[in-house]
């Protein structure tokens, strides 16, 4: 009976496929193209915005938040929403949005992902609807006159002045100046009866994302990487599921879950956010700290490289994170020395537990004049990090800008290390830098400006 059922099920599916193929073969080319580009047919439910257009705008949503894993189809959903808004496609909207903002981490990200990407705006339109992209003017223009302009979270002030009916914000959890950029955009969304915005992002427990989630005008939809398996490489899915499935990182990056900070972590995101600043102040000393990997090549650990400084009041500042993956010793040494010169630093602080004299030798091959202070780890990583974490609690360390991957390590570092079991290389470099600047009483200050 079971075998017979399976056979009949396959026969039914085969008949449906043949019937569909016959139907499609009879359609004119123009209708086939229209069918191919009808997003309402092909999209999953979680890729479509709320389908109710509420006439009472006091009750309507104005933020559509798509939280999803890597490759879950967020970009396509965002681009299709912008297309519908620009062209006035029902039931998404009742009239075209003539002015739209496209906001990303950088202008390069807006162009590469939101506009020219495989799921970007230029790829999803049928030929007769395809907008004109003018990179020099940082805008795209549709045949009906609707315009979408490019903006970067690196420059919140660029959103002061323009006005829009709609906006697409991509990967907001990676934005520098996230709150300032978001606030400027909200003031700019002032055209039309009900300005709206779509936010597409892999979630991280940032203050901005938490605020958007708590907004009573936000509609939230979630998707997993696995939900988009039909459009992803099977080998990719198999590899990431085997490596990250069920882990804290996998829940965030694959399942699109908002993972809160670890309760036992030495740092919390709210703590870092409160002390974040945008501009580098006048500094007395600057150091570049290195946590070198044990090995090199494809299987090498990341090399932590962090620049930090201190002002005359004893306040520490994280200035750069130039950590690099799978680099040869000469490559990471070159990056560290270049950063030393770019920042006009006072010296390089390098851990030499693993490499001994080799670390200094490699740095000297790049620049034999660079001042180097070799440090040895006599205590465990957690014990070394505790005094630096205490300085953060006292408000004595600020981040100049946003360092996403470094801050992820900080807020996931507990007594047992990182939850994924990996080495906290970026964090180690930060700890060495701040220990040298704020906990080493033998340091000699020297006034400088960046």
Keywords:
2 domains, alpha/beta, Rossmann fold, 17% strand, Nucleotidyltransferase, domain 5, 450 residues, six-stranded mixed sheet, single chain, 16 helices
How would you describe this protein?
This protein folds into two domains: 36-253, Rossmann fold (3-Layer(aba) Sandwich); 271-439, Nucleotidyltransferase, domain 5, CATH 3.30.420.280. Helix content is 37%, strand content 17%. The chain contains 16 helices and 16 strands. It has helices spanning 2-26, 29-36, 39-42, 74-87, 107-115, 121-124, 178-188, 207-214, 234-244, 248-253, 269-274, 329-342, 357-366, 381-393, 404-410, 425-439, and strands at residues 63-68, 99-104, 132-134, 139-141, 147-152, 166-170, 196-201, 218-223, 285-291, 304-310, 316-321, 347-351, 372-375, 397-399, 413-414, 417-418. Strand 3 and strand 4 (139-141) form a beta hairpin. The longest helix has 25 residues, at 2-26. It is elongated, with a radius of gyration of 26 Å. The N and C termini lie far apart (79 Å).
In short:
With 450 residues, the chain is α/β, with parallel strands linked by helices. Helices cover 37% and strands 17% of the residues.
Strand content: 15-25%
Cα distance spanning the termini: 79 Å
Mean pLDDT comes to: 86
CATH topology descriptor of the largest domain: Rossmann fold
CATH superfamily of the largest domain: P-loop containing nucleotide triphosphate hydrolases
Note the main sheet.
8 strands, mixed
**Shape label:** elongated
Which class best fits the helix and strand makeup? alpha/beta
How many discrete domains? 2
Number of strands: 16
Radius of gyration: 26 Å
The strand line-up of the biggest sheet is 3-4-5-2-6-7-1-8
Helix count, DSSP H or I runs of 4 or more residues: 16
Helix-residue proportion: 25-40%
* CATH architecture verdict of the largest domain: 3-Layer(aba) Sandwich
CATH classification, class level of the largest domain: Alpha Beta
Low-confidence stretches: 1-7, 52-58, 443-450
